[in-house]
Predict the structure.
Amino acid sequence: MTGNRLGRLLNILDYALSSLGRKSLKNGGVFIIFTLVVFLFASFQLVSRALTEAAQTVLATAPDITVQQMSAGRQVSIASSAKIPLAPIFGIKKIEERIWGYYFDESNGANYTIIGLPARAGDSGGTQLFGLAEGRLPVASERGQVAISDNVRRQLQLGNRKHFSLFRPDLSQASFATVGLFAPKTEILTADLMVMNLADARDLFAIADGFVTDLLVSVANPNEIETIARKISEKLPGSRVITRNQILKTYKVVFNRRSGLGTVCLLTALAAFVILAWDKASGLSREERKEVAILKILGWQTSDIMLLRFCESLSLSLLAFISGYLLAWVHVVFWGGALFRPIFLGWSVIRPVFSLAPPLAASDLLLVFSLSVVPYLCATAVPAWRAATVRADSVI
Amino acid sequence: MRPSTGLLMTLMILSMLGGAVAHTVLIKRGEQAENLQILQGVVASLGLSDLALSTEARYTRHPAVSDPVVVSMDHPGAIDHFPSTFFWAPVARP
Amino acid sequence: MMPDNLVELQAVTKIYNQGQANEVIALKQVSFTVARNEMVCVQGPSGSGKTTLLSLIGCIFAPTSGRATIGGKKISRLPDHFLTRYRRELTGFVFQHYNMLDHLTVLENITLPLLPLGISPGDRVRKADRLLEKFGLSHRRNFSVTQLSGGELQRVAIARALINDPPIIVADEPTAHLDGKLSREVVDMLASLRDEGRTVVIASHDPIVSAHPAMARIIEVRDGIILHQLSGR
Ligand SMILES: Nc1ncnc2c1ncn2[C@@H]1O[C@H](COP(=O)(O)OP(=O)(O)OP(=O)(O)O)[C@@H](O)[C@H]1O
Ligand SMILES: [Mg+2]
């Protein structure tokens, strides 16, 4: 009996596949649209998944607490003296001053991120730890040193030269010597970085003495970060206190379907399905009606016709889903999400080179599956039922 | 050949391709895991808060630490000027 | 085992679209029987209810009221599912309009009833080839049905009706689109099925059919009632 059941399934599947093949133009169109929708949606999901995962892992070592000064809804420089009221807070291990900002290079339109490192005890740490391919980080004791990425070196067209100069706001020149080069493997963090010491950054940006961009607070016990952050914001009215958790939270949602592209991918998917479903649901043609009636009169049960329709929709949607999903992986992993790169890098002149390797998660696959194959099957269930209930005697 | 056999074979070929892709991904992730540790070191030593992906706007270069209202600088309902903000969701309020 | 009367209708009424404006009473209180291994002809003018009567015998639908027993199975008030099962076990239907699926070949059309039974492609072809040979259609096996002549199509239809080896064959105007010689051939073919031990019911107003020597009875239908029954020659 089971053999017979399998035989019935295979026979009806054969019949379904041949009738799919017969209407190859229409079904080919459906297949391509379906594949494309799955491809776009899955690509977006995989790219954002890979970036989110990278951010969550990499930024796990971000500063415990960052303190900024707000004024008129914007971030402004914070006075170094803000450290004073914080000193008595129990549990703070260290407070460092930092200056960072952007330097716009008018000659090529690139935007560099400049970081003025706080003075540190272990200034000349190991190359490996700091992700430097060669050289070292600038030290506090010597002026005019920078560590840059290879990408920045290319943007500045340095070639083998070590020295270059940048303009201060008053257009006077500040000159720098390259002492370190970040490894290309770290581009996802360092692509646009110019790291110098605090004094150089203050000089370059002409920030007044006694002011810095933000304060980095280290906390002895990670469990106390939130409590200490609350205390800091109580002591410094008008400040913005950002904890590591908030940074991670930002990166949890920054690449997701709330973004415009995510919405567009979802909307195309939705539009495509509405079109497909409408096409399927918009009445039976005379031909179809006749075919079903003949099959029924020849002894096919209603359930056989349902199975036939189900085989048609399932094989079409499953094949399209698998193809689209595979293509999405190839696109993301082998082509680095080439289709989306222009969008998520935008008009940036400095484009980091990095590879994407999203995690293999069954839940991701199920999400795309349940947003593509499942609605398609549901959309085709009603017309399948309507076809299956055509009466046998309607051809006599 | 029966069409159903053809379908079965197609599915098998596709799953083999899937297996090959998964294999490559796992290898790549293995390599990436080492690199991620180096990157963690970079973040810790430079006190970084953001990924250097898109440098075209403050809120895509430093979404975690830029002003909460920066996306709606012009007008809360204004459409952004930058293509990358098409991919990046607006910065969440903490 | 099969009963003596393969078809037994008692006071059978069939109403199309019951309760609606376009209600049609196609059969009124019809009673008649067909014995096993008998060949009968149903005659009557157009619209008299021949096709309706044959559809009842072919288990295509159940009567609106009355008792209908086909091959020993009571088919009145039966869910569709069982009707379909009896249809494929008990009867083979040859239609007035062939009712072939144009996009399929002769072989595929003939084997359609076997698909939901789970019969393997090899067995299907074997069964079909036997019938195709019997009806001299082997050379047309892989033709599209649209390429066949009317006579060939009618033979394909008969072959398809026989694929499940049913005890009852029902043929609705099998000679309607054929000329005299071909009509004769088709009726001979149906008569040979009777000789194999099957019961054959043919609806026709073609004298070639009613005058066939194998015809046991002629049932005259008019406006949904049986006018009279004549025994054949
Ligand atoms: N599906 C249907 N719905 C409504 N009325 C129908 C249907 N089928 C047949 N009828 C009506 O039932 C009556 C009997 O029809 P039937 O088809 O049985 O006649 P017939 O003797 O086969 O005619 P013909 O020689 O033209 O084939 C006719 O009045 C016809 O209009
Ligand atoms: Mg008729």
About this structure: The first helix of chain C runs from residue 50 to 57.
